[in-house]
Amino acid sequence: MTIIALCTLAFFATMVARLVISPVVPEIVDTFDSSTGVLGLALTGLWMAYAFAQFPSGVLADRYGERIIILAAIGLTTVASALLALSPSMPVFLVLTLVLGGVAGLHYSVATTFLTRELNNIGTAIGLHNSGAPLAGLVAPIAAAAVSQWFGWRAAIALGAAAAFPIFVLFRWKIRPTEPARPEQPMGDRFALKPVIELLSRRKIAFTAMLAFLFEFIWQATASFLPTFLIAYHGYSVTFASTLFSAYFIIQGLTQPGIGSLSDRYGREEIAALCAVAGIVGYTLLLVGSRLGVLLVGIFLIGVAMGWGAALLPRFVDNLSATERGAGFGLVRTTYMMLSATGSVVVGTVADTAGWGIAFGIFVAFLSVICLALASNRLLDLGF
Predict the structure, then answer these.
(1) pLDDT band at 238, cuts 50/70/90?
(2) Does residue 16 belong to any structural domain of this protein?
(3) Cα 42 from chain centroid?
(4) 326 or 23, which is more confident?
Protein backbone atom coordinates (compact mmCIF):
# COMPACT_ATOMS: atom_id res chain seq x y z
CA MET A 1 0.00 0.00 0.00
CA THR A 2 2.94 2.34 0.60
CA ILE A 3 3.97 2.15 -3.06
CA ILE A 4 0.44 2.82 -4.32
CA ALA A 5 -0.10 5.67 -1.86
CA LEU A 6 3.15 7.44 -2.74
CA CYS A 7 2.76 6.98 -6.51
CA THR A 8 -0.77 8.39 -6.22
CA LEU A 9 0.49 11.36 -4.21
CA ALA A 10 3.20 11.94 -6.80
CA PHE A 11 0.58 11.93 -9.57
CA PHE A 12 -1.52 14.32 -7.47
CA ALA A 13 1.44 16.71 -7.11
CA THR A 14 2.33 16.76 -10.81
CA MET A 15 -1.34 17.34 -11.67
CA VAL A 16 -1.76 20.17 -9.14
CA ALA A 17 1.21 21.99 -10.69
CA ARG A 18 -0.57 21.96 -14.06
CA LEU A 19 -4.09 22.72 -12.89
CA VAL A 20 -3.32 25.81 -10.77
CA ILE A 21 -2.58 27.84 -13.92
CA SER A 22 -6.05 27.91 -15.48
CA PRO A 23 -7.90 29.72 -12.64
CA VAL A 24 -5.45 32.65 -12.75
CA VAL A 25 -5.25 33.15 -16.52
CA PRO A 26 -6.93 36.62 -16.41
CA GLU A 27 -4.43 37.89 -13.83
CA ILE A 28 -1.47 36.58 -15.85
CA VAL A 29 -2.83 38.23 -18.99
CA ASP A 30 -3.15 41.56 -17.17
CA THR A 31 0.33 41.33 -15.62
CA PHE A 32 2.09 40.72 -18.92
CA ASP A 33 -0.33 42.77 -21.06
CA SER A 34 -0.86 39.69 -23.18
CA SER A 35 -3.96 37.86 -24.49
CA THR A 36 -6.04 34.85 -23.55
CA GLY A 37 -5.11 33.30 -26.89
CA VAL A 38 -1.42 33.36 -26.02
CA LEU A 39 -2.16 31.79 -22.62
CA GLY A 40 -4.30 29.19 -24.36
CA LEU A 41 -1.36 28.39 -26.60
CA ALA A 42 0.82 27.97 -23.52
CA LEU A 43 -1.65 25.56 -21.93
CA THR A 44 -1.98 23.56 -25.13
CA GLY A 45 1.80 23.36 -25.26
CA LEU A 46 1.87 22.20 -21.63
CA TRP A 47 -0.44 19.24 -22.34
CA MET A 48 1.37 18.38 -25.56
CA ALA A 49 4.71 18.38 -23.75
CA TYR A 50 3.17 16.20 -21.04
CA ALA A 51 1.99 13.70 -23.64
CA PHE A 52 5.30 13.74 -25.52
CA ALA A 53 7.28 12.93 -22.36
CA GLN A 54 5.51 9.60 -21.79
CA PHE A 55 7.69 7.58 -24.19
CA PRO A 56 11.16 8.89 -23.28
CA SER A 57 10.29 8.59 -19.60
CA GLY A 58 9.76 4.85 -20.08
CA VAL A 59 13.07 4.52 -21.93
CA LEU A 60 14.87 6.37 -19.12
CA ALA A 61 13.22 4.16 -16.49
CA ASP A 62 14.33 1.02 -18.34
CA ARG A 63 17.90 2.33 -18.24
CA TYR A 64 18.06 3.85 -14.73
CA GLY A 65 15.14 2.40 -12.75
CA GLU A 66 11.66 3.71 -11.97
CA ARG A 67 12.42 5.30 -8.60
CA ILE A 68 14.94 7.81 -9.89
CA ILE A 69 12.68 8.88 -12.79
CA ILE A 70 9.68 9.39 -10.50
CA LEU A 71 11.87 11.39 -8.13
CA ALA A 72 13.10 13.47 -11.07
CA ALA A 73 9.51 14.12 -12.13
CA ILE A 74 8.45 15.34 -8.67
CA GLY A 75 11.65 17.27 -7.98
CA LEU A 76 11.76 19.00 -11.36
CA THR A 77 8.04 19.80 -11.07
CA THR A 78 8.87 21.57 -7.81
CA VAL A 79 11.60 23.61 -9.49
CA ALA A 80 9.60 24.35 -12.65
CA SER A 81 6.56 25.50 -10.67
CA ALA A 82 8.67 27.80 -8.52
CA LEU A 83 10.39 29.32 -11.56
CA LEU A 84 7.05 29.69 -13.36
CA ALA A 85 5.71 31.70 -10.43
CA LEU A 86 8.71 34.03 -10.76
CA SER A 87 8.44 34.53 -14.54
CA PRO A 88 9.49 38.08 -15.46
CA SER A 89 7.86 38.12 -18.92
CA MET A 90 5.41 36.28 -21.15
CA PRO A 91 8.07 34.60 -23.35
CA VAL A 92 9.74 33.19 -20.22
CA PHE A 93 6.34 32.10 -18.90
CA LEU A 94 5.62 30.27 -22.18
CA VAL A 95 8.94 28.41 -22.13
CA LEU A 96 8.59 27.42 -18.48
CA THR A 97 5.04 26.19 -19.09
CA LEU A 98 6.40 23.80 -21.71
CA VAL A 99 9.13 22.71 -19.31
CA LEU A 100 6.57 22.08 -16.57
CA GLY A 101 4.48 19.89 -18.89
CA GLY A 102 7.53 17.89 -19.93
CA VAL A 103 8.91 17.21 -16.45
CA ALA A 104 5.47 16.42 -15.02
CA GLY A 105 4.99 13.97 -17.89
CA LEU A 106 7.93 11.89 -16.69
CA HIS A 107 5.78 10.41 -13.91
CA TYR A 108 2.69 8.57 -15.12
CA SER A 109 3.96 5.85 -17.46
CA VAL A 110 6.92 5.07 -15.22
CA ALA A 111 4.79 4.89 -12.06
CA THR A 112 2.30 2.61 -13.83
CA THR A 113 5.09 0.26 -14.92
CA PHE A 114 6.50 0.34 -11.39
CA LEU A 115 3.13 -0.66 -9.92
CA THR A 116 2.66 -3.49 -12.42
CA ARG A 117 6.09 -4.87 -11.51
CA GLU A 118 5.41 -4.78 -7.78
CA LEU A 119 1.71 -5.75 -7.60
CA ASN A 120 -0.54 -8.44 -9.06
CA ASN A 121 -3.99 -6.79 -9.34
CA ILE A 122 -2.87 -4.19 -11.83
CA GLY A 123 -6.37 -2.91 -12.65
CA THR A 124 -6.98 -2.07 -9.00
CA ALA A 125 -3.51 -0.53 -8.67
CA ILE A 126 -3.95 1.65 -11.78
CA GLY A 127 -7.40 2.70 -10.58
CA LEU A 128 -6.03 3.82 -7.22
CA HIS A 129 -3.11 5.57 -8.90
CA ASN A 130 -5.40 7.37 -11.36
CA SER A 131 -7.47 8.78 -8.49
CA GLY A 132 -4.65 11.27 -7.87
CA ALA A 133 -5.74 13.27 -10.95
CA PRO A 134 -9.41 13.90 -10.00
CA LEU A 135 -8.33 14.67 -6.44
CA ALA A 136 -6.04 17.35 -7.85
CA GLY A 137 -8.88 18.49 -10.11
CA LEU A 138 -11.04 19.01 -7.04
CA VAL A 139 -8.47 20.76 -4.85
CA ALA A 140 -6.18 22.72 -7.18
CA PRO A 141 -8.63 25.13 -8.91
CA ILE A 142 -10.35 26.05 -5.64
CA ALA A 143 -7.06 26.56 -3.81
CA ALA A 144 -5.53 28.55 -6.67
CA ALA A 145 -8.54 30.86 -6.90
CA ALA A 146 -8.51 31.50 -3.14
CA VAL A 147 -4.75 32.07 -2.87
CA SER A 148 -4.71 34.39 -5.89
CA GLN A 149 -7.35 36.58 -4.21
CA TRP A 150 -5.21 36.92 -1.10
CA PHE A 151 -1.64 36.91 -2.44
CA GLY A 152 -1.79 37.17 -6.24
CA TRP A 153 -1.37 34.75 -9.14
CA ARG A 154 2.30 34.08 -8.50
CA ALA A 155 1.50 32.58 -5.10
CA ALA A 156 -1.27 30.52 -6.67
CA ILE A 157 1.11 28.96 -9.21
CA ALA A 158 3.67 28.38 -6.46
CA LEU A 159 1.14 25.97 -4.91
CA GLY A 160 2.47 23.43 -7.42
CA ALA A 161 5.90 23.61 -5.81
CA ALA A 162 4.39 23.56 -2.32
CA ALA A 163 2.48 20.37 -3.16
CA ALA A 164 5.37 18.59 -4.89
CA PHE A 165 8.30 19.22 -2.53
CA PRO A 166 7.07 17.33 0.57
CA ILE A 167 5.98 14.41 -1.61
CA PHE A 168 9.46 14.37 -3.18
CA VAL A 169 10.99 14.10 0.30
CA LEU A 170 8.54 11.40 1.38
CA PHE A 171 9.01 9.34 -1.81
CA ARG A 172 12.79 9.51 -1.52
CA TRP A 173 12.60 8.41 2.12
CA LYS A 174 10.12 5.55 1.81
CA ILE A 175 10.78 3.96 -1.61
CA ARG A 176 13.86 1.79 -2.08
CA PRO A 177 15.98 2.02 -5.24
CA THR A 178 14.61 -0.06 -8.12
CA GLU A 179 16.52 -2.25 -10.56
CA PRO A 180 16.36 -1.05 -14.19
CA ALA A 181 14.83 -3.45 -16.72
CA ARG A 182 17.41 -2.81 -19.48
CA PRO A 183 20.48 -1.18 -17.92
CA GLU A 184 22.92 -2.19 -20.68
CA GLN A 185 20.90 -1.50 -23.83
CA PRO A 186 21.80 1.81 -25.53
CA MET A 187 18.89 4.21 -25.32
CA GLY A 188 19.28 5.08 -28.99
CA ASP A 189 18.16 1.56 -29.87
CA ARG A 190 14.83 2.17 -28.12
CA PHE A 191 14.08 5.15 -30.38
CA ALA A 192 14.72 3.27 -33.61
CA LEU A 193 11.80 3.62 -35.99
CA LYS A 194 11.33 -0.05 -36.90
CA PRO A 195 10.65 -1.42 -33.38
CA VAL A 196 8.40 1.57 -32.63
CA ILE A 197 6.27 0.84 -35.71
CA GLU A 198 6.26 -2.88 -34.91
CA LEU A 199 4.93 -2.33 -31.40
CA LEU A 200 2.25 0.17 -32.41
CA SER A 201 1.07 -2.04 -35.28
CA ARG A 202 0.34 -5.06 -33.11
CA ARG A 203 -3.36 -5.77 -33.43
CA LYS A 204 -4.27 -5.66 -29.75
CA ILE A 205 -2.05 -2.65 -29.01
CA ALA A 206 -3.38 -0.67 -31.99
CA PHE A 207 -6.99 -1.51 -31.12
CA THR A 208 -6.54 -0.49 -27.49
CA ALA A 209 -4.79 2.73 -28.55
CA MET A 210 -7.72 3.61 -30.81
CA LEU A 211 -10.18 3.12 -27.95
CA ALA A 212 -7.94 5.08 -25.56
CA PHE A 213 -7.74 7.96 -28.07
CA LEU A 214 -11.54 8.21 -28.26
CA PHE A 215 -11.95 8.04 -24.48
CA GLU A 216 -9.11 10.53 -23.82
CA PHE A 217 -10.44 12.96 -26.45
CA ILE A 218 -13.70 13.06 -24.49
CA TRP A 219 -11.90 13.38 -21.13
CA GLN A 220 -9.80 16.31 -22.35
CA ALA A 221 -12.76 18.20 -23.80
CA THR A 222 -14.96 17.51 -20.76
CA ALA A 223 -12.25 18.79 -18.42
CA SER A 224 -11.98 21.93 -20.54
CA PHE A 225 -15.65 22.73 -21.18
CA LEU A 226 -18.08 21.04 -18.78
CA PRO A 227 -18.64 24.19 -16.65
CA THR A 228 -18.99 26.34 -19.79
CA PHE A 229 -21.51 23.86 -21.23
CA LEU A 230 -23.61 23.95 -18.05
CA ILE A 231 -23.60 27.76 -18.12
CA ALA A 232 -24.20 28.31 -21.84
CA TYR A 233 -26.50 25.37 -22.63
CA HIS A 234 -28.52 25.15 -19.41
CA GLY A 235 -28.23 28.68 -18.04
CA TYR A 236 -26.79 27.75 -14.66
CA SER A 237 -24.64 30.17 -12.67
CA VAL A 238 -20.85 30.02 -12.64
CA THR A 239 -20.89 28.97 -8.98
CA PHE A 240 -23.36 26.15 -9.51
CA ALA A 241 -21.63 24.94 -12.68
CA SER A 242 -18.30 24.88 -10.81
CA THR A 243 -19.92 22.88 -8.00
CA LEU A 244 -21.16 20.26 -10.47
CA PHE A 245 -17.71 20.22 -12.07
CA SER A 246 -16.16 19.47 -8.69
CA ALA A 247 -18.73 16.71 -8.14
CA TYR A 248 -17.69 15.20 -11.48
CA PHE A 249 -14.08 15.01 -10.32
CA ILE A 250 -15.07 13.56 -6.94
CA ILE A 251 -17.11 10.78 -8.57
CA GLN A 252 -14.29 10.02 -11.00
CA GLY A 253 -11.79 9.76 -8.16
CA LEU A 254 -13.99 7.62 -5.92
CA THR A 255 -15.04 5.14 -8.60
CA GLN A 256 -11.73 4.50 -10.39
CA PRO A 257 -10.37 1.96 -7.86
CA GLY A 258 -13.63 0.01 -8.13
CA ILE A 259 -13.53 0.11 -11.94
CA GLY A 260 -9.97 -1.20 -11.89
CA SER A 261 -10.92 -3.98 -9.48
CA LEU A 262 -13.88 -4.98 -11.66
CA SER A 263 -11.63 -5.11 -14.72
CA ASP A 264 -9.29 -7.48 -12.87
CA ARG A 265 -12.23 -9.72 -12.03
CA TYR A 266 -14.51 -9.58 -15.06
CA GLY A 267 -12.30 -8.46 -17.95
CA ARG A 268 -10.87 -5.27 -19.44
CA GLU A 269 -13.17 -5.08 -22.46
CA GLU A 270 -16.36 -5.76 -20.51
CA ILE A 271 -15.77 -3.01 -17.94
CA ALA A 272 -14.49 -0.55 -20.57
CA ALA A 273 -17.74 -1.17 -22.47
CA LEU A 274 -19.76 -0.50 -19.31
CA CYS A 275 -17.89 2.80 -18.89
CA ALA A 276 -18.79 3.72 -22.48
CA VAL A 277 -22.47 2.83 -21.92
CA ALA A 278 -22.52 4.91 -18.73
CA GLY A 279 -21.06 7.80 -20.72
CA ILE A 280 -23.63 7.50 -23.50
CA VAL A 281 -26.48 7.67 -20.99
CA GLY A 282 -24.78 10.41 -18.95
CA TYR A 283 -24.00 12.79 -21.80
CA THR A 284 -27.44 12.18 -23.32
CA LEU A 285 -29.05 13.20 -20.03
CA LEU A 286 -26.96 16.39 -20.00
CA LEU A 287 -28.18 17.17 -23.50
CA VAL A 288 -31.90 16.46 -23.06
CA GLY A 289 -32.66 17.60 -19.52
CA SER A 290 -32.14 20.79 -17.51
CA ARG A 291 -33.80 19.70 -14.27
CA LEU A 292 -31.41 19.31 -11.36
CA GLY A 293 -32.21 15.65 -10.76
CA VAL A 294 -31.53 14.74 -14.40
CA LEU A 295 -28.25 16.68 -14.42
CA LEU A 296 -27.07 15.07 -11.20
CA VAL A 297 -27.63 11.59 -12.61
CA GLY A 298 -25.86 12.65 -15.81
CA ILE A 299 -22.88 14.05 -13.88
CA PHE A 300 -22.64 10.85 -11.84
CA LEU A 301 -22.65 8.67 -14.96
CA ILE A 302 -20.04 10.68 -16.85
CA GLY A 303 -17.88 10.68 -13.71
CA VAL A 304 -18.03 6.87 -13.79
CA ALA A 305 -17.46 6.76 -17.55
CA MET A 306 -14.36 8.94 -17.39
CA GLY A 307 -12.78 6.42 -15.01
CA TRP A 308 -12.26 4.31 -18.16
CA GLY A 309 -8.48 4.34 -17.76
CA ALA A 310 -8.61 1.95 -14.81
CA ALA A 311 -10.27 -0.63 -17.09
CA LEU A 312 -8.60 -0.01 -20.45
CA LEU A 313 -4.99 0.96 -19.67
CA PRO A 314 -4.22 -2.41 -18.02
CA ARG A 315 -5.02 -3.96 -21.43
CA PHE A 316 -1.84 -2.36 -22.77
CA VAL A 317 0.15 -3.89 -19.93
CA ASP A 318 -1.49 -7.29 -20.48
CA ASN A 319 -0.20 -7.28 -24.06
CA LEU A 320 3.36 -6.15 -23.37
CA SER A 321 6.16 -8.34 -22.06
CA ALA A 322 7.82 -7.45 -18.77
CA THR A 323 10.84 -5.99 -20.58
CA GLU A 324 8.65 -3.92 -22.95
CA ARG A 325 6.40 -2.31 -20.38
CA GLY A 326 8.55 0.68 -19.49
CA ALA A 327 9.16 2.15 -22.93
CA GLY A 328 6.25 0.35 -24.59
CA PHE A 329 3.56 1.72 -22.31
CA GLY A 330 5.11 5.18 -22.55
CA LEU A 331 5.12 4.94 -26.34
CA VAL A 332 1.42 4.12 -26.62
CA ARG A 333 0.59 6.83 -24.07
CA THR A 334 2.49 9.43 -26.09
CA THR A 335 0.81 8.27 -29.31
CA TYR A 336 -2.83 8.39 -28.27
CA MET A 337 -2.45 11.40 -25.94
CA MET A 338 -0.84 13.57 -28.61
CA LEU A 339 -3.82 12.87 -30.85
CA SER A 340 -6.45 13.28 -28.13
CA ALA A 341 -4.97 16.63 -27.06
CA THR A 342 -6.92 18.03 -30.02
CA GLY A 343 -10.16 17.40 -28.09
CA SER A 344 -10.36 20.87 -26.59
CA VAL A 345 -9.66 22.62 -29.89
CA VAL A 346 -12.11 20.51 -31.90
CA VAL A 347 -14.97 20.67 -29.41
CA GLY A 348 -14.44 24.38 -28.76
CA THR A 349 -14.53 25.11 -32.50
CA VAL A 350 -17.68 23.01 -33.02
CA ALA A 351 -19.35 24.80 -30.09
CA ASP A 352 -18.54 28.18 -31.68
CA THR A 353 -19.87 27.18 -35.09
CA ALA A 354 -22.71 24.73 -34.37
CA GLY A 355 -23.58 25.12 -30.69
CA TRP A 356 -22.96 23.21 -27.48
CA GLY A 357 -25.58 20.56 -28.22
CA ILE A 358 -23.72 19.39 -31.32
CA ALA A 359 -20.35 19.72 -29.57
CA PHE A 360 -21.32 17.46 -26.66
CA GLY A 361 -23.16 15.17 -29.09
CA ILE A 362 -19.70 14.26 -30.43
CA PHE A 363 -19.06 12.51 -27.12
CA VAL A 364 -22.13 10.31 -27.52
CA ALA A 365 -21.05 9.43 -31.07
CA PHE A 366 -17.49 8.54 -30.01
CA LEU A 367 -18.71 6.42 -27.07
CA SER A 368 -21.09 4.60 -29.43
CA VAL A 369 -18.13 3.81 -31.70
CA ILE A 370 -16.27 2.39 -28.69
CA CYS A 371 -19.21 0.15 -27.77
CA LEU A 372 -19.61 -1.03 -31.37
CA ALA A 373 -15.88 -1.78 -31.68
CA LEU A 374 -15.75 -3.75 -28.42
CA ALA A 375 -18.92 -5.67 -29.22
CA SER A 376 -17.75 -6.52 -32.74
CA ASN A 377 -14.36 -7.69 -31.47
CA ARG A 378 -15.99 -9.99 -28.95
CA LEU A 379 -18.94 -11.32 -30.96
CA LEU A 380 -17.04 -11.79 -34.23
CA ASP A 381 -13.85 -13.00 -32.51
CA LEU A 382 -11.72 -10.56 -34.51
CA GLY A 383 -8.68 -10.98 -32.31
CA PHE A 384 -8.03 -7.29 -31.62
Answers:
(1) low
(2) yes
(3) 17
(4) 23
Q: What is the pLDDT of residue 232?
A: 84
Structural domain includes residue 337: no
Alpha carbons 61 and 190: distance in angstroms, whole number: 12
- Comparing 252 with 39, the larger pLDDT belongs to 252
SS3 per residue for 69-112: HHHHHHHHHHHHHHHHHCCCCHHHHHHHHHHHHHHHCCCHHHHH
From 179, 200, 221, give the residue that closes a domain: 200
Considering only CA atoms, give the Rg of the chain.
Answer: 20
Range of the domain at 364: 203-318+342-384
**Residue 1 three-state SS:** coil
Residue ending a domain, among 200, 227, 245, is 200
What's the mean pLDDT in 208-236?
Answer: 88
Question: How far is residue 325's CA from residue 331's CA, in Å, rounded to a whole number?
Answer: 9
pLDDT of 158: 96
Judged by DSSP in three states, 236 sits in coil
